[in-house]
Amino acid sequence: MTALTTRQKLEILADAAKYDASCASSGTAKRDSASGRKGGIGSTEGMGICHAYAPDGRCISLLKILLTNSCVFDCHYCVNRRSSDVRRARFTVREVVDLTLSFYRRNYIEGLFLSSGIIRSSDYTMEQLVAVARSLREEHDFRGYIHLKTIPDADPELARQAGLYADRLSINVELPTEQGLRRLAPEKDGQRIESAMAGMRDAIEDGSDASRRYAHAPRFAPAGQSTQMIVGADQADDRAIIRRASALYSRHGLRRVYYSAFSPIPSPSSVLPLKRPPLMREHRLYQSDWMMRFYGYSAQELESAADPATGCLPLDIDPKLAWALRHRDCFPVDVNRAPREALLRVPGLGVKAVDRIVASRRHRRLRLDDVARLTRSVAKLRPFLVAADWRPVHLADRLTLHIAHPPASQYELFP
C-alpha cells in the first residue's frame, strides 16, 4: 500500500476528529513568548482548524486532530470503530509536533486539541499523546494551548504526566446512562470512567493547592477537565442527561460538559437509531447547562421544564421560558425590589443585564423604558416584570406567550 503523505493524513485525521465537541480553551493560564527560557514561540481557516470561544467572547483557533483513527474498540456510535469501513491513517509523534509548530508560527492556530483511537493498548496510546505534549513543551518551549483527550483505562501515572504538559484534560463519559454505555460501547466501563475523572479532580485540586503555597510548583491542567455526552444515540431523554451533567459537575468539579447530537456515520451499526435527533435539542441542552452553571437552577428545576410525556425540553422555546411558564406563581417579579436571584429567572434577562439593573436601581426607581435600555428586547420581559410604571395584568397567565417566538429550524451539523 502506498504510504500516505502528511497532508493526506491531515485530511483523514482532521475529518475524523470533527465529531468531538469538547475543545473549548477557556480558563488556561496566559503565556508570554518573550519570557521563555529559549525565547519561546507564539504567545484562520484551514484543514483541521476549529474555532472555540472563551467566556469573554474571544475566538480561539485550535488544530484539532486525532493521532490515529484506528481503534481496537468497536463502539457502535463511533465512525472510527474497529468494524467501520473507513480509510485509516496514523501520525507519528514527530509529525504532530511539526504540524503544530508550523501552523503556530504562521499564526493559523493558538493551540492543539489532540485525541486518538486506541491502538495496541490504552497505555501505549496514552504514552504517544503524552510524548507529543512533552516534546512541544520541553524540546520546543511551546507556549500555546494544549488540550489532551485522556484514556480512562490508562495507567494513572500517564494521566498525571499529561496534566503537567496540557492546559486541559478531558475524559468522555460518552453516553448519559450506564445502560446505554453497555449497549452501545460494551468494551467501556462507566465505573472506570468515573474513577478516572475522580482521580483527575484530586490531582487538579492538589496542583492548585501547591501553586498557592509554592511559587515554583509545577502547573497541573490549569484549565481543568471536561467531558462529552452523545445525545440521541440511545433512549435517554433530556431529564436523564441534565441529571447526569449535574452529578458530574458536583462530583468531579468539571469545567464543562459538552453535548454532541448523534450524527449518521458511514457503515452505521444496526443498533443505532435510524433518525438523528434535531440539532435544536443539543442547543437546548447547552442552554440548560448554562442555566445550571450561571443562573442558579438545580437539575430538578430544569427537569420540571421538560415535557412530561417525552421527558425532553421543548424545542420551540428556550428552557428558561419553559420553566417560567410552568412556574407562573413565581412571577411577575418587581424589578425594583426583587433579589438578584429572582431577576436571573426572568426570561430574557441575562447575567449582565441583571447586574446593570441591580446597580441602577440603587439610584432611582426603574421604569419599563429604563429596563429596555439595559437589555436587548423588552418584549419578552413584559409579562414577567413589574416596574415603576408597568404591571402586566394577567399577561403571565396567557397560554400563548411562546407563540410570538419564531419556530425552531433545523440546521445541518456538517453541511
Q: Can you write the helix and strand succession as a string? A: HEEHEHEHEHHEHEHHHEHHHE
Structural class: alpha/beta
Question: How much beta, percentage-wise?
Answer: 5-15%
**How many domains in all?**
2
Rg calculated over all Cα atoms = 24 Å
Task: Give the uncertain stretches in residue-range form.
Answer: 25-34, 41-46
Q: What about the largest sheet?
A: 7 strands, mixed
Number of strands: 9
- Measured distance between first and last alpha carbons: 32 Å
How are the strands ordered across the major sheet?
Answer: 1-2-3-4-5-6-7
Q: Summarize the amount of helix as a percent range.
A: 25-40%
Distinct helical segment count: 13
The CATH architecture of the largest domain is Alpha-Beta Barrel
- CATH fold label of the largest domain: TIM Barrel
Kindly provide the name of the CATH class of the largest domain.
Alpha Beta
Mean pLDDT: 86
Task: Using the alpha-carbon principal axes, give the shape.
Answer: globular
Domain Elp3/MiaA/NifB-like radical SAM core: 61-288
Protein name: Radical SAM protein
Pfam families: Radical_SAM
Cofactor: [4Fe-4S] cluster
